Fold RDH7 dehydrogenase.
Amino acid sequence: LASILSLIIYWLIRDRYRVRNLSGKYVFITGCDTGLGNSLAKWLDKRGFCVIAACATEKGGQELQSCSSLSLKTVNLNLADSNSIARAVLFVTKETAGKGLFGLVSNAEGTAPVAPTDWLRIEDFHSVLDVNLLGLIEITLKLLPLLKKAEGRVVNLINAKGLMAFVGGGYSLSKWGMEAFSDSLRIEMRHFGVKVCIVEHGFFKAGVVNSGIIEKYLFRLWKRLAPEIRNSYGRKYFVN
């Protein structure tokens, strides 16, 4: 009972802790065009953080800047492109101006295609893994020197639906890989005062995948299937 009470008291004290002196603390967030990343960028900006928001499109960046403070900066980022990652890292390095990076929040994700495994080709796995996992790892590695300088933190946002492997494709593979990468990085970075955590969030209205996109990919995959595979499933299976 004493142990349980001590643990409860510890949790209460820990959860009351707040970061002070937010001004001058830089946070880099990926996937800020829409959804959770977009909302987080605005929320942190209002609280005084120096937010650097990575967007996949020029339009996304412009719309975010139009409803944020002048201190919020945006940069284009394609996590499947090493050159794009290098340019974004250079931008963050210049913006932080020797202060280091207080936070890296990885939120960007690719979802489609999802389909029965033998409907897919290796490039279909790459289209998701290159963004969700390999791109995340690459940009994290390149930003570690800035994170260590500021004794900052890495926050990897993982949609809980990705932890249930109920359909083929790279989505669940990428989420499980993010968990493993985060767990090992957490142990290694503790020596440098860098915190690494995972936020396994649930469903958000802003982040629901458009069912039309899923259907579009399914139709495309169905049409390109070899006749023997298509016949083995049958039209009824596809419609259901």
User: Anything to note?
Assistant: The two ends are 53 Å apart (CA to CA).
